[in-house]
Design a protein that fits this description.
globular; single chain; mainly alpha; 14 helices; about 75% helix; MetI-like fold
């Protein structure tokens, strides 16, 4: 009996230690967000004061109002959001189709082609960005959003891999039953595989949206100031609390998305097969 109690006590101690470590890590990770939020309510004088004060004497709520009144934040945010949603929707469909083909069909050269797709995962963006710029410049696509659409139409290696792994977990009998019922591959994909891939779809949609919303390098290269996206535009905003307020608004959608979609992200990354 004493051994059982000792074992339970040890488990409680281990659980306490794990949660303590997680809490400490979480606190350290939250410090930059906390400082950003506090700074967004300060004036320029508060930010340059020495010694610095953690909290301002008066919260400058007008910083958030000024972001919309004196900058193009609203217009650029809308433009960035529309492009991010469009990119996410298209690349999710094309990546799902490619992942389905790689997972369920074996044709000559498919393995080699998949290895080429996977090789793109380890290729740094800086390696391909200059050739892309030259190609798009010769096609007259610089300072347009067409490069994002073309990229989405070709799928994304990481998302193709996630869908392939997910679809490989589907039982073969399900596919055979669909073929007996006369389903062609596209209909099978739409009617059977896609409805059961909600975790993978949610994960890819979220990652694809964030890849555009949070991107700085690509719009800096491809777009001029009049059509740039929010990540680049923030650099041109006024300094002081206004910049911090704009940055807080910029990261808010990402925090909200991750908070409400964390379960879907875990399912999409970890699971590989049918649930329920």
């Amino acid at each position: 009996m004493a051994t059982i109690r000792s074992g339970r006590f040890q488990k409680q101690i281990n659980a306490f230690n794990r949660y303590l470590v997680l809490i400490i890590v979480a606190v350290f990770l939250m410090i930059p967000f906390f400082l950003l939020t506090v700074s967004s309510f300060k004036t320029r004088a508060d930010l340059t004061a020495y010694p610095p004060d953690l909290f301002p004497e008066v919260l400058q709520w007008r910083n958030y109002i000024a972001v919309f009144l004196y900058t193009d934040f609203g217009e650029i945010a809308l433009r960035t959001g529309v492009l991010a949603i469009t990119f996410a929707g298209i690349t999710t469909i094309t990546s799902a189709l490619s992942g389905f083909a790689f997972a369920r069909y074996r044709v000559p050269g498919s393995r080699t082609l998949f290895l080429i797709v996977m090789a793109m995962l380890i290729m740094p963006q800086i390696v391909i960005i200059i050739p892309q710029f030259i190609i798009y410049a010769r096609m007259g696509l610089i300072n347009t959003y067409t490069p994002w659409i073309l990229s989405a139409l070709s799928g994304t290696p990481l998302y193709i891999f996630l869908f392939r792994q997910f679809f490989m977990g589907f039982p073969k009998e399900l596919e055979e039953a669909a073929e007996i019922d006369g389903c062609d591959p596209l209909r099978m994909f739409v009617k059977i595989f896609l409805p059961n891939a909600k975790p993978a779809i949610a994960t890819v949609m979220i990652f694809a949206f964030i890849s555009v919303w949070g991107d700085y390098f690509t719009p800096l290269i491809f777009l001029n100031a009049d059509k740039t996206l929010l990540g680049v535009a923030l650099a041109s905003f006024y300094g002081g609390g206004l910049l911090f307020a704009a940055t807080a608004l910029y990261i808010t959608p990402l925090v909200v998305i991750f908070y409400f979609a964390q379960k879907h992200i875990l399912k999409g990354v970890v699971t590989s097969g049918l649930k329920g």
